[in-house]
Amino acid sequence: MKDPIVAEVRKHRMEHTRKFKGDLRAICADLRAIQSTCGHKVVRLPPRRLSRAKQPRPRGKSPR
User: How far is CA 9 from CA 16, 40, 57, 58, 64, in A?
Assistant: First the structure.
């Protein structure tokens, strides 16, 4: 089942990518410029430390 919202987001993302010919630096610079002039408040939260129980397991051999 196709989600129309997801389809629209992907369409606009592809248009933006084509506009800058896939140049990620240019795309990011443009998005930052849009963000700084849009008037919306940008919230940046500090990273949260994971509690001991929620920390990811180290990769490798599993304990048995």
Answer: 11, 19, 34, 35, 45
pTM score, whole prediction: 0.56
Alpha-carbon distance 34 to 9, whole Å? 16
Q: How many CA atoms does the CB half-sphere of 60 hold within 13 Å? A: 3
Q: Are 17 and 27 a contacting pair, CB within 8 Å?
A: yes
Mention every residue, 6+ apart, whose C-beta is less than 8 A from residue 27. Answer: 16, 17, 20
Q: What is the pLDDT of residue 48?
A: 86
